[in-house]
Amino acid sequence: MKDGVMAARSTALIAAATLVAGLLVSGTPAAAQQLPEEHTVTLLTGDRVALTKAPGGRQIVRIQPGPGRADQIFFKQAKGDQLTVMPGDVAGQVRSGRLDRALFDVTGLIEQGYDDTSRKDLPVIISGALHGTSVHRDLPSIGAYATTLEKGRFWASGDARIRLDRRVKASLDQSVPQIGAPAAWQAGYTGKGVKVAVVDTGYDHAHPDLKNVVAEKDFSGDGVQDGNGHGTHVASTVAGSGAASNGKYRGVAPDASLVIAKALDNDGGGSLSDVIDAVEWAADEGAKVISMSLGTSEPSDGTDDLALAVNRISREKGVLFVVAAGNEGADMSIGTPGAADAALTVGSVSKQDVLSKFSSRGPRFGDFAVKPDVTAPGEEIVAARAGHGDYVAGTGTSMATPHVSGAAALLAQQHPQWTGEQIKTALTSSAKPGSYPVYAQGTGRVDVARAVTQAVTATTNLSFSLVRWPHSTGRPETKDVTYTNQGTAPVELALSFTSDAPAGLFTVSADKVVVPAGGTAAVSVRSNPSVLKPGQFSGRLTATGGGAVVQTVVGLSGERESYDVTVELIDRTGAPASDDLEHAVGFFGAEYAPIYVQQGQGKVRLPKGVYRLASLISTKGSATLAGDPNLSVTKDVTITLDARKGRKVSVRPERKAATDLYRSFGAIVGDGKGSTAAITAYAEDRAVEFYAVPAPSGGVPYSFSTVYDAQATDSLDADLVARGPFYSLVHHWPGRIPNGVNLTVRDRDLAKVKATFGSKNGKSGLVARVINGFSPMQVFGNAAFARVHQPGERTEYYTAGKDVFWINALYRVPGDGTNAPSPLGIVWATVYGFHAGAQTEPWNHAVEGPGLPGPAQGLSGSEDILWVGHWGDTIDGRLPLFADVGQYQHTRFDPAVTGGWTVYRDGVKVEESKDYSGFSGPAVTGPAEYRVDGFADRTVPWSELSTHVEGSWTFRASNTTGARFTPAPVIAIKFAPALDAYNRAPATARTLVPLRLERQGGTPDLPLTELAVQASFDDGKTWAPAPVVRTGRAGYAVVANPKVTGKTFVSLQVKAKDSGGSSVTTKVIRAYQLGTSG
C-alpha cells in the first residue's frame, strides 16, 4: 500500500499478452541483455545526455550542455535504474505544469524510442497555443493537439502546456462457453447490429474469421494490415466467425460488426496521441463498445490524458470502453486507460476461474478506488492468427478483455437504448465472484448468460475515500447502491453483506429492498472509520430475489500511521528557494518519496519511521546540499533547510595547471538492501560553487553517503586531447554531510597510472578515453571524455582506496565531425579499483581472444564479475570472446561481428544461439556435465587482428534455486606476448608467449594438469606445436617463427585442463603480427 506517498509515474503503454504457436523458441539470451548499451538523448533545452549501461549493473552518464549553456547546473535524480536530468533553468516551467517532467526522464525517453538514434524530433501533446507549431493531429476530447518539436529548441515563451506524447505498445473454444456466451446465443443475442471497435495493431484482411469489418483506419503509418498479430487475435475473440475452424473458435459476439482502429504499428508500438485519435474516430464511427487490450506498466490515478479522453467520450457518446487491467501482477499496479473511472477494467482468470498471477490488481493509485471491475478468461486463449496459420494461443489480460467486449456487444444488441454505463453495471452486477479479494477481481468473472436473463442491475462499486491516520478523526461516509429493474414486475431483493473488514466498519441500511418495475431503489452503505485498522478492506453486497443474483462491491483503505512532513528551503541569500530554479528533495525509507517544491516549500505524507533526507538547494551560481541522514518521523513536522549554513566544498589536484572538466556533488541514499536513490548536481562551469550544510552521522553509513567527483586536466587541444595528466577524483563521506571540504589532493597520495593505447589496424589515429568513477552504492557514474592518440600513452591519476572504483573504456571516434564518441568498437574494463603508487594499464593490446576479465584483487570496491553459471533452471553465459590482454578489459558487442553459441548437457545439445554475445539454455536438477562452444568472426576497420576466435569449455555444475547466480568452474588461458605499440612481435627466431590462467570469482583455484599450445602462420590452415614451459599457475609457450617476407600474422590455439576436470580449447586467428613490414 502506498499510504499517501505519491510519486511521478511514467506511462509507457503495454498490451500484456504472450502469443504461442507451436514450438516455443528462446529469444535473446538474458545474458546478452546485460551487455553495455549506449544511448544519447537531446533534451528540449539542447543539452545532450549520453547514458551507457556498463558492467556490474551500473550506468555511465555524460552531460554535454547545449550551445551557450555551459553555465547551467544540472540536477540528476536517480531511483534504482531510472534517471532524470533536469537543467536548472527549466524548473519553474516544470513546477508550474507547463513542461512535463517526463520530457527530462532520460531513461524513460530511451525506453520509448525517443533517443537521438531513433528519431530527430520529439512528439508532444500541447494544450493551448504555441507559436511556430503545426497541428499534426487534433485531440478534441482532451482539448489538445499532437505535434513534434525540434530537439534542442527550448520553448521558453507562451502559456501552452507541453506533455510528452508517450509511446504505447501492444501488451476461445473453452473460454467463450466459460463466460456463458452460448446461452446468450440461444436467447438470440449474437451481437448483430452492434459495432465493436478494436484499438490495437490492426487485423489480417485475409483471415476467414474476420469478414465482418465495416470500418477501418490506420493511425500508425503502417497500414491496417496486422503485421504483429495482437490485434487479429483480439478482434477474433470479440467477433470472429470461427469459419477456419468450423465454428470451434468463434468469438463471443460472432455477428457483431468490427471497427478496426490501428493505433499500434507492426512492432506493437504507437503513441498516446495515436490511441486518443483512434478512440475519438471509433466513437464517431458509431462504435458502442471500444475494446482496448493495452495499458501502462506504471500505475495511473485516472487523471492522465488518455483516461480523461475515455471518461469524456464515454459521457458524451454513451460508449463503453472495455480495457485490460494489465499484467504487472502486483497490488496498485493498474495503469491507464484501465484506471479511468468510466472504463470497464478487466483482470484475468484461468479456464478453471483461478485468478491469473500476472493479472494487475488494485486499488487504484492515488485515491485507492476499487479496480479492476471484473475478470474473464485470459490464459491460453486460442483465436485467429495473422499471416501463416489459422489460430494461435495467447495469454494475458489482453486476451481476457475481448471476452468482455464481446459480452458487452451481446447486451448492446439486447438493449439498444442502453448507455455504455448501463452495460457496464449489467456486466459487473451479474458477475460470478471467486474466492479472491475485491481489489483483485472486482465483482468477479463475467457471466453473460446471467446478464442477458436477469432484469435487475446495481451500482458497480462503492469506493470510499482513503482514511488518514489517525482513523478516529475520519468522517463517516454514506454511499448509495442503486438497483435498477428493467422488468415488468417489482422484485424483492434480500440483501447479504460479507466483508474482510473489522466489525462495524461497514453498515448496510436495510436487509431487503423492493425494486419497482421499470424503476429504481437505493440502499445505503455507511463507513465507520473509528473501528478502522491500517490496510485495504472490502466487502460484497449480494442481492437475491426473483431469480436474480446481483453483486456490488465496496472498498475502503486505512492509512498506516503517517504524518505530514513539510520541508522549507531557504537559499543562500536568505530568501525562500526560487521557483525559477530546480531544487531536489527526497526521502528514503521503506520507499523513495520525492518532494516538489513551490515557493520554497514542499510537503509529503510519510509513514512513521526513520528516513534519510537529502536536498539540493539552488541559488544562482551554486547548489547547497542539506539534509538529515537519520530523520525520525513520529509526528507532523516542519523541517527548515537553510543554504546559508552551508560551507564550501572543493576538492582539486595539487597541479595548478589542472582545471575541472566537470564537478558533481550530492547524496546517495539506500535501504540497506540494494535499492538506492541519488540526488546530485553536475556543473562544467568552473564558476559554479558547491556547499554543504553539515549533518552528523546517523549510524547508517551504508544508507546515506555524500559524494563528490570531478575530472580535470590542464586543457584540451584542438583535437580534444589532454595536454597534461588526467585526474579522476572520487570522494565520499559515509553516513553524514561533511562540515565543508577544502581538499587539495597530492599526486603522491593518488594512483599514478601509465595508460598505453595500442593500434590493431597498423594505423595511428585518435580514440576517445572515457573515465567513469563510482563511490559505494552509486549506480549512475559521471564521465567526461578526452581523446588520446593511438598508439600513444597518457598519465592518469585516480583516487586510491578500497571503496572507490572505476569502469573505464575506449571509444571509437566517429568520422562525422562531432565530438560524440561512437558506441561501436568499445573496449571496456570490468569494475576495478586502484592502490596508491605507480602502475601500468595496457589498452587495446593483443592478444585479444576468449577470456575471463576480472577485478583487481583485494579492493572492496571491486566486484566479482560472473561470466557463466546457473541461474535457477537455466545455464547462462556471456563469456567475452574478445578479451583484451589487460586484466580487466574486453571489447563489447559490435553489430559488425557475427558468431554464436552451442550448449551441450551430458552430451546432448540443449541450446543454440546465433548471437555471439551470450547464451541461455535449460539446466537440470542436480549435477551435469556441460560443454559450451562459441565462435565469432569480424571484419572491422579498427582491427586487422582476431578476425576469427573460438572456444570450447567443459565443466561440471549444478543448478540453483531462486534468484541466486552460481558461477560455473570455467577456465581461460590468455596469450600475453611482448608486442610493440602496433601489436607486432619482432621477426626473431622465436617469440616467448606468456600464458595467463583466468577464472571467474567464486570458483576454486585448481592447478592445471594439461597445457598445450600450437601456432599457425597461414591463418589456421596448418598448425605446429609450440613447446610450453610450465611456471607458476600456467607458463609460457615458445613459438618458432619462419622467415618473414611480407605481412605475416601469427595464429594461436591452446588446450588446457585443471585437476577438477574443467577444460578449455581456444583459437585466435591473426593473434598478432610478426615483423614490421607490410
From TrEMBL:
Stored SUPFAM superfamilies: Subtilisin-like (SSF52743)
GO molecular function per UniProt: serine-type endopeptidase activity
Residues of the Peptidase S8/S53 domain: 191-443
GO biological process assignments: carbohydrate metabolic process; proteolysis
Keyword terms of this UniProt record: Hydrolase, Protease, Serine protease, Signal
The keyword Hydrolase appears for this protein: yes
Cross-referenced InterPro entries: Ig-like_fold, Peptidase_S8/S53_dom, Peptidase_S8/S53_dom_sf, Peptidase_S8/S53_subtilisin, Peptidase_S8_His-AS, Peptidase_S8_Ser-AS, Peptidase_S8_subtilisin-rel
Entry annotation: catalytic residues: D200 (charge relay system), H230 (charge relay system), S398 (charge relay system)
Signal peptide: 1-32
Protein family according to the UniProt entry: Belongs to the peptidase S8 family.
Protein name listed in UniProt: S8 family peptidase
Upper taxonomic lineage: Bacteria, Bacillati, Actinomycetota, Actinomycetes, Pseudonocardiales
